[in-house]
Design goal:
0% of the residues lie in helices and 30% in strands. By secondary structure, it is mostly beta strands. The chain has one domain. The chain has a four-stranded antiparallel sheet, with no helix packed on it. A two-stranded antiparallel sheet has the order 2-5. Strand 3 and strand 4 form a beta hairpin. The protein is globular. The two termini are 20 Å apart.
């Protein structure tokens, strides 16, 4: 859904444009991950209106090296409910703007 490289010069990843993924993703998981170390910094579920529940407004890095951050939407079908989610390499831009999910 979104990618950003954090470091000492660019410590803040603004997540406000990505609060809404669209109703077609309702019930799917999301996560904020640093892909180099596969470290998850936040995660949640997309509600019935298409909003990423629990997504903070920004991610602030305190590290001096590059952090390759991605905001991802997973895919969880009924069959996968006990086996976990499938995660993409990356997603494209959000499918709706803030406030257009309702």
């Amino acid at each position: 859904m979104a990618r950003y490289t954090t470091n000492n010069a660019n410590p803040i990843f603004d997540l406000t444009p990505y609060k809404c993924a669209g109703k077609e993703y309702a019930g799917q998981p999301w996560r904020l991950i640093e892909v180099g170390y596969v470290a998850t910094y936040a995660s949640g579920i997309i509600d019935s209106y298409g909003y990423l529940l629990g997504l903070q407004n920004q991610f602030r890095s305190s590290y001096f090296y590059n952090g390759y951050m991605e905001l991802q939407i997973g895919c969880k079908s009924a069959a996968e409910s006990t086996t976990g989610s499938q995660w993409p390499v990356a997603r494209t831009a959000p499918t709706c703007a803030i406030g257009s999910c309702l």
